[in-house]
Amino acid sequence: MKFDLKVWGPIIALIVLCVAGAFMNENFLSAANITNVLSRSAFIGIIAVGMTFVITTGGLDLSVGSMAAFIAGVMILIMNYLIPSMGVTVGVVLIGMAAALALGFVAGLLNGLLITKMRIEAFIVTLGGLGIFRSLVTWLADGGTISLDFDMRTFYRPVYYDGILGISWPIIVFAIVAILGEIAMRYTAYGRHCAAIGSNEQVARYSAVHVDRVRTATYVILGVLVGVATIMYVPRLGSASSSTGVLWELEAIAAVIIGGTTLQGGFGRVWGTVIGVLILSLIGNLLNLTDYVSPYLNGAIQGVIIILAVVLQREKRASR
Amino acid sequence: MGMKHLLGAVTLAAIAAVPAAAQTVIGVSIPAATHGWAGGMNFHAQEAVDRLEATYPELDFVLATASDPAKQVNDIEDMVATRNISALVVLPFESEPLTGPVKGVADSGAWVTVVDRGLSEEGIEDLYVAGDNPGFGVTSGEYMVSKMPDGGNIVVLRGIPTTIDNERVEGFQSAIEGSGIEILAMEHGNWNRDDSFTVMQDFLSKYPQIDAVWASDDDMAIGVLAAIEAAGRDDIQFVLGGAGMKEMVARVRDGDTMIPADVTYPPSMIATAIELTALNFVSTAPVSGDFIIGSVLITPENADKFYYPDSPF
Predict the structure, then answer these.
(1) Which of A141, A161, A284 comes nearest B198 by C-beta?
(2) Residue A2 pLDDT class (50, 70, 90 cuts)
C-alpha cells in the first residue's frame, strides 16, 4: 500500500504528541491523566462525530455549542422541578435524559427543515441558532447559573466519573458513538448518500437519493448527539450558564477538518474526527502539564495545528 | 460595610437644590447579564432603581443593558436624545470605545458616574465607583499567609487575560512574598467553571503535592473543587475563591473546611454608584470623587452579612 500522508498525517501527529508528552512529563501517560483527557474529549467528540456527517453532506452547524448549553439548562430545570414530587430517583434522571435527547432532536429537526425546506443557507440558520440558544440559556438562568439540586447532583455524578472496569462512562459512550458513526459512514447506504450529496447535489438527486431527507437527517442526528453530550456534561459540574459550551461548535468543526473530512463536503472520515478531537485535547493538556509555552499562546498553537492539517490534505488533493 | 473610604475631591459647591417640580432623569447603562458576576450586577442595579424610584418620586430612572460596546454606545446616545438625562451611571463594557460617547454626555453638562472600569481619559467623570483589584489580590494573599504560616505549595488559577487579572495577581504575589508560600504554577481558567476544571485536573496530574489553591474566583473554585473531588486527592487543604457568589458564601457560613473563606468583589457596587448619584440630586451631600470599595474577607463569623438569597449570583 502506498504511503498516503492524508491518511497517516493525523495519526502521526497524534503519536508525535503522545511521545513528546511522555518525555516532557512522566505523569502524561498515567491512567489518571489519560482518563481525564479522554473524558473531557467526550463532549466535543460525540458532537464532532455528528458534525462529520453534516460537513460531509456539504453543510455546517454553528449552533451546537449554544444548543448544548440550552439543553443542559432545560434538563437541569426539569430535573429540579421533578424532585419535590418524585424524589432523588433514577426516574428523574431518565426523564432528564429523555428530555435532553428530545430537545436535541427537535432543535436538529428545526435546523434541518429550515435549511432544506426554506432553502436558507446552513451558515445563516445555525448562526441564528447560536444566538438564540445562547440568549435563551442566559434568560433561563437570569444571567447567573442554573444549578442542579445538590442531592441530585451527587446521585447523578457517577454518570461522568464512574464507569466499567476503570473506563469512565463518557469514554464508553464516545467510543460507541464513534464506532456506530464509522460503520454508518463507511458501510451503509446512508453514509454513501451523505458523501454523494456533498460531492454533487444535482447528480445525487438524479440518482434517486432523497437529498432533503438525508440532509435533514444529518442535522437531526447531530442534534440528538448534542443531547447525548449534554447528558454526559451535566453530571460533571451540575450546572449550566451562559458560559457553557462556548466555542464548542468551532472545536468540533476543527476536529472534523483535522481528521481529514473536507470542509466543502463529499468526503467524510469518522475515525479521523476522533483523532482530531484527541489531538486538540492533548495540546491543551500538554500545555497545562508543561511550562515551555506561555498560556497566552495556547490558541495560537491550536491554530497552527489546524492549518497544518489542512495543508497536508491539500497536497494530497492536488496530486489526485 | 467594609472599608469604604471616600477619597473626596473638593466638590464644587454649585450643586443647588433641585427644583421640586421638575423630574430628574438618571440613565443607567450596564453590560448585559452574560456571566454570573454581571447577573448579580444586573440584579442589584434593578433593585437599586426600584428602591430609589419608590423613595424619591422626583427621580426617574432609565436602565439599559448592552451585550456589546457598540450597543452600549447606542443606548447612551438614545438616553441623551430621547430622555434628556441629567445624570448617567455607566459601567463601561470596554474602556476605549465608551470614552468618547461618555465624554460627550459629560460635555453636555450632565453628571457622569463611572463604575468599575475606568475610561481611557482622566477627568471625565464626576464620580468613580470601583472595586479594588490590587486590594483583592492582597487580601487573598494575606489570607493565604495567615492560613499557612509555615509556607507551602499552591497553584493559581487566573481569569481572562486582562488588566483586572494582572492587578489581582500582582497584588497576590506581593502579599505572599517571603512567606514561604511557593506558586507551583499559574494558568488561565478564564473565570469559567469548565476551563478551571480542566486546568485543575492537569495541575493534579502534574504535581503530587499541592497544599492549597488560589482559584481567585468563585466560579473557578467550583470547577477546582469538582476536579479535586474526582481525583480523590486529600493533600489540598483548602481552596480560596473570590467575588462572593452566594453558594460559596453559604459554604463559608456553614464552616466547610475546603472553603474556609472568600474575598469580595461585590457586583452590588452598581447599587452604591446609583445611590450616590441619586444623592447628588436629592440632597446637599457632596458625592464627587473616587469611591473605592475595598475587598473584604468573608469568614464564617461575618458570612451572613454577605449572603443575598434573592440574587442570582
Answers:
(1) A284
(2) low
